[in-house]
Amino acid sequence: MNLKISALEYVEEVKNGNLSAEDFVSETIDRIKNVDEKLHAFLQVNSKAIEQASQIDKKIKSGDKVGSCFGMPISIKDNICIKHSKTTCASKMLEKFVAPYDATVISRLKEQDAVFVGKANMDEFAMGLTTEFSAYGPSRNPWNTDYVPGGSSGGSAVSVSAFECVASLGSDTGGSVRNPASFCSTVGYKPTYGLISRFGLISYANSIEQIGPVTRTVKDTAFLLNIISGLDSHDNTTIDNTGQDYLADIDSGIEGKKIGIIQEMAGEGTDPEVRSATNDAVSKLEGLGATCEDASIDMVKYSVAAYYTITATEAGSNLARYDNLRYGYDFPVEGFEFNSYISKARTKFGPEVIRRMILGGFVPSAGHAGKYFLKALKVKSKLTKEIHEAFKKYDYLVAPTVPVLPFKIGEKIDDPIALFLVDFNTVMSNLTGIPSISVPFTISKGLPIGIQLMANNNEDKSLLRSARALESTVKLPEVPI
Amino acid sequence: MTKIGLEIHCQLTKLESKLFCSCKANYRQYEPNTNVCPICMGLPGTLPRINQKAIEKATTIAMALNCSTPDHIAFFRKNYFYPDLPKNFQITQLNIYGETSIGGSGMIMVGDKKIRITRIQLEEDPGRLIYEGSSSKNQITLVDYNRAGTPLVEIVTEPDFENPKQVRDFLNILSDLLENLDVSDPGLEGAMRADANVSIEGGNKVEIKNIGSFHDLEKAVHFEITRQESLHSRAIPIAQETRHWDDKRKITISSRSKEEELDYRYFLEGDIPWVEISKDLQEKLKAEMPESISSKKERYISKYNIPEQVANVLSSDKFYSDLFDSSHTEKNAKEIANIITTDLMGLVDTTEKRNESKLEPTHLQDLADSIVSGKLTRTNAKNALYEIVKTGKNLSQIISELDLGNVSDENELIKIIDQVISEEPQAVEQAKSNPQTINFLVGKVMQKTKGKADPKLTLELLQKKIS
Ligand SMILES: [Zn+2]
Fold it and tell me: Which domain of life does the UniProt lineage start with (chain B) (predicted)?
């Protein structure tokens, strides 16, 4: 059986009776058994997946109404809640947390008869960009298992790239979907802030993060977006997109569009391989009838600093609730005075989480907020203004998704500053709320390089069209695992 | 000069649900930790859902206190660790980045004294801590999250009070106002809490936290002024500090905790975008606002000629004024006002008694009519009212069951009068020469009828017989 098909192909095959959901899911589970010991994309595999798929087959056979996913096996990042299943955020703090409800994206996918094959590995509480900070061990890049798969949605990208599922949902706070998508040669998309409900996504930096699909093709992303996007009464920040069909006209191309190449994101720190891939991408875009020119977004140089200041502040607050009083791991409460209890109960956080929470306690504190947190907010608003100016001139902006090639596991884990810079090209979209997508573009020295396209707020449909156009110019080799 | 400022926390107990979820706002009847859901328990992945009704009620309070009301309000996170806080931060409001809380500056008159309101903010109540165990060694703390997320309005005043009496007068006016707006029941335990700051001439400002009721607030302020004056008279400096109110011993105690040094790291709550309170909505809320206490009072006096003191009592209590407004007619208004303010008040002086009362407006109309027409004496009307409140039966049934009706049948009365005249020849003679003494005979008739004889008719008949 061919597992190497896209989500849309899967739907066609099942619809036409050429494929049964049960067979496909069962083959997928076998594939996970075979390769995941090496890749570690999953923290948990759904033992009922095959049974659930067979139920959907029954519905199809009996002529009942079937949801548009037709039993499609999907992996879910382990910071998104699925009712009655463990949701750990790859942290020991939530080792035993079983979510009592479904995230909105989950209930919408359930309605469309998706099957969740498992919970995908990630950096603890989504803090990291290599998946090395998972408390349960790193995931590995299927293109070369000595290399990091990117992060924090590493498990999602690995599982899609290595055919352990058809598609995945990750979350993107500063590049956490796009970065691993780029490193693993999948599509990774961060929508306009508010387009996808965050209800059931465990917050890291809630004012800038979004759930995003990780897929094999741009069309698959549009397909998932049609299901999971839109207004949700459980999330006050969601946008009404009634009537939008992200698949419609997706092939209509980018002729006559204007594209700005962000100079600050392809400058000195950029790996030469990545820079030349970017130049190639620009030629391809021009070949499709777009006009490309150099663009400058001056505030980009402060964006990483602003990003870490804001995310640390919000993380410090969002993660404060993990005091183990109401849920968490087994730890007896009795016999402690409250403050000593708190410091004992919270020792299960990993080093990166602790680092960011310490930062989060400092940068917004009285006497320091003006120098750090408030300044970061200022950068955010100036950057947003600059971006909106740029989109008066351009339909899209383009840059490499990550300025460097994937690196080896362990290579940068002890150098937080070096790691922070890996985020350089992705955090801008989170700070400004704009949609952006990483499209697999080329393989260099056996390692994938992705190209990032960006559009103005709420121009998601147009952005997917441009990504589809770029994708159509590319032919990539198959993953070697 | 003594300066006192207040921070009043008032639960919006009349709302159906909590501020950010659909659990009940009135949590009091639930077993611990049963009026909770993933949102108010702060479970991972949950987001607050804003209760629009809470925004509207809080805006109404701001309007009633003559506060400015901004077009857009924002919520902030106040970060600190405490076991009663499910998220270890509280969603509240703040004005440090412009006027973004539900009410800006306002004022209210307390007699001739103007009390300025600094701001009003809408926030979530934490859970409740219950301490058990006798000594500090075996003390345990239990947490009940039923209260967590209850909508709370914080009313902050300028330090405009000069003495405890002004504080008391303000609190009376405020609780009447909140009740009249139908937003809160100040009588419910824990519905009103307060902090106060007190400073006397030449002394530092002292904050008193944790005052559990309005009653104690006045006491706490009084205690604190006395304490500070006593220090001052002995030339001991008054330290700037935070003190706690000990409601068992009724004193303030210096807080050992470093609470005043806590840094709350306030920042905007990203999960709640700025909430618009449009001009249209504000107009609508203004139009729907219940008649104010002062306007009711004015109406009672000018329209029905009700004495000022009675009008005061009637208008300041929503329960009474609602009853009055739904039962009175032009004709019996004064009588009904009397019944409410003299007889009814003692029967329904607590929330529980009011909830249990079976009294309907029609009862009051019947009672007033019966008094005016002489069918019931005042004393018997009072007895009937007691029965009505208890049973809800209609007046005529009660009169016949308890045999309260006046004997106003002439023939029957004449028989009794004849009997009295034959038994009291001396008194009859006396009455003939001195008409004043006829009251003795009226009294005798009353005795025989157990107080049910119509006094006016009895007098008339007696006078006719004797002359
Ligand atoms: Zn609740």
Answer: Archaea
Instruction: Decide: B167 and B4 in contact? Cβ < 8 Å.
Output: yes
- Concerning whether A77 is annotated as a catalytic residue, the answer is yes
Residue type for position A83: K
**A200-235 burial, b for 16+ CB within 10 Å, e for fewer?**
bbbbbbbbbbbbbbbbbbbbbbbbbbbbbbbebebb
For A83-108, write each residue's pLDDT tens digit. Answer: 999 999 999 999 999 999 999 999 99
- Predicted pLDDT at A128: 95
**Is the CB of A338 less than 8 angstroms away from the CB of B141?**
yes
Is residue B161 within 8 A of residue B8, CB to CB? The reply is: no
Say which of A235, A339, A373 has its CB closest to residue B47: A235
Q: Ligand 1 centre from A97 Cα, in Å?
A: 19
Interface of A with B in 188-247 (CB under 8 A): 198-203, 206-208, 233-237
* Closest residue in A to B87 (Cα–Cα): A321
Q: Which two tokens stand for residue B9?
A: 């926390």
**Closest to A198 (Cα-Cα) out of A156, A220, A169, A221:** A169
Rounded Cα–Cα distance for residues A455 and B416 (Å) = 103
Model pLDDT, residue A296: 97
Mark the residues whose beta carbon lies below 5 A from ion ligand 1: B 21, 23, 37, 39-40
Cα(B146)–Cα(B33) distance, rounded to whole angstroms? 5
Element (H, E) at A189: strand A187-190
| CB-CB under 8 Å, A237 with B77 | no
Cα(B217) to ligand 1 centroid in Å equals 30
B37 at the A interface (CB within 8 A)? no
Give first-to-last CA distance, chain B, whole Å: 74
Q: What pLDDT score was predicted for residue B237?
A: 92
Interchain CB contact of A334 with B (< 8 Å): yes
Mean pLDDT of B377-399: 85
Instruction: Kindly report, residue by residue over B220-231, the tens digit of the pLDDT.
Output: 999 999 999 999
pLDDT-derived band at B258, boundaries 50, 70, 90: low
Q: How confident is the model at residue B408 (pLDDT cuts 50, 70, 90)?
A: low
Residue A274 contacts residue A404 (beta carbons within 8 Å): yes
Query: Is residue A442 pLDDT above 60, yes or no?
Result: yes
Report whether pLDDT(B300) > 80: yes
Show residues of chain A in contact with B77, CB under 8 Å: 317
- Kindly list the structural domains of chain A, giving each domain's residue range(s) and its CATH number in brackets, ordered by start: 7-252 (3.90.1300.10)
Nearest Cα neighbor of B458 from B438, B430, B431 is B438
Residues A215/A167, Cβ–Cβ less than 8 Å? yes
Domain coordinates in residue numbering, chain B: 2-284, 291-402, 410-466
> Mind telling me how many Å the CA of B235 is from chain A's nearest CA?
35
User: Residue B79 carries which DSSP code?
Assistant: E
Distances from the Cα of B78 to the Cαs of A4, B90, B123, B345, in angstroms? Answer: 50, 5, 10, 44
Give the pLDDT confidence of A352-364 residue by residue, as tens digits. 999 999 999 999 9
Nearest to A311 by CA among A259, A376, A370: A376
The pLDDT of residue B259 is above 60: no
CB contact under 8 A, B49 and A361: no
Question: Hey, which CATH number is domain B410-466, 1.10.10, 2.30.30, 1.10.155, 3.90.580?
Answer: 1.10.10
